[in-house]
Amino acid sequence: MPPLMAIEFLCRVADVLNDYLGGLNEDLIKDNFIIVYELLDEMIDNGFPLTTEPNILQEMIAPPNIVSKVLSVVTGSSSNVSDTLPGATASLVPWRTADTKYANNEVYVDLVEEMDATINRDGVLVKCEINGEVQVNSHITGLPDLTLSFANPSILDDVRFHPCVRYRPWESNQILSFVPPDGRFKLMSYRVGKLKNTPIYVKPQFTSDGGRCRVSVLVGIRNDPGKTIDNVTVQFQLPSCILSADLSSNYGIVNILANKICSWSIGRIPKDKAPSMSGTLVLETGLERLHVFPTFQVGFRIMGVALSGLQIDKLDLKTVPYRFYKGFRALTRAGEFEVRS
């Protein structure tokens, strides 16, 4: 069996369980063991993937809710599998229910990007790339046929598509042609590499002598994206040789958690001053200077901007002759954003 087939199937299982249970952890699986067992029974047959589309599974197996749990206790019946086979199982577009009807026809497209960056101790940008997703929320009557095009598709690398996307139009003209699933789904994922700068900077400085270490961290806007940068956080793990820490900031809140993680919540960076954190670390007995320096994990969010530069050109509905409403949004947040000290 191709190894990627097993990996893809496991990713499908994880996505379906996330949709059903609202998360994926040991406690949720224990609490909903019967539904998990029923889902696996439908998703795989004799070792081969069978039904992995969420809309078909939701027609066959009802998602868990309070009412179904109460009924199972009262009636003693623990199965919630439907007796009828969903019509989409015999359709050419199994990801979509054929008889969908809406009073208002709407399509919303979100560009959601995460910036991964590594900055070395000299402040030099070693790596900076974007991993993004095109997320679509579609509520359209019937069986719509959509096309989505970008103004600058040449910047995209490592694209990965939902099964609804026809590959030939993308290969020839970089146009996404597809019949969308109903509701919210991930249309495609992509990567944009070798970006030249980051929207914010973090400058840590450590000076140690005599068993103590002075810490100073500055945060500010390096490249203004034109939109507000908020949800800014800076975290780092205190080295094991630190006995105690006394840290404070001129903006935001500094907390030292039980596992020796220092968390600095800044929120929105003010325009009139650069947030700074400073304080003193006490080293364990016998150590004069700090020899192990932490790596800073940075978080942020920018609404309304795709920092990769990707731009949506147009979204058209080809087959169904009625008006529909469309909207576009963008969001960039920090992924694995590291600053070494």
UniProtKB/TrEMBL annotation:
Chain ranges of the MHD domain: 104-340
Localisation per UniProt entry: Endomembrane system
CC annotations in GO: clathrin adaptor complex; endomembrane system
Signal peptide: none
PROSITE patterns from the UniProt entry: CLAT_ADAPTOR_M_1 (PS00990), MHD (PS51072)
Keyword Ubl conjugation part of the UniProt annotation: no
Gene3D superfamilies: 3.30.450.60, Mu homology domain, subdomain B
Source organism, top-level taxon: Eukaryota
GO biological process: intracellular protein transport; vesicle-mediated transport
InterPro entries assigned to the protein according to its UniProt record, in alphabetical order: Adaptor_comp_med_subunit, AP2_Mu_C_sf, Clathrin_mu, Clathrin_mu_CS, Longin-like_dom_sf, MHD
Keyword annotations from UniProtKB, A to Z: Membrane, Protein transport, Transport
Major site of localization recorded for this protein: membrane
Record family assignment: Belongs to the adaptor complexes medium subunit family.
PANTHER family: AP COMPLEX SUBUNIT MU
Protein name: MHD domain-containing protein
Lineage, highest ranks first: Eukaryota, Viridiplantae, Streptophyta, Embryophyta, Tracheophyta
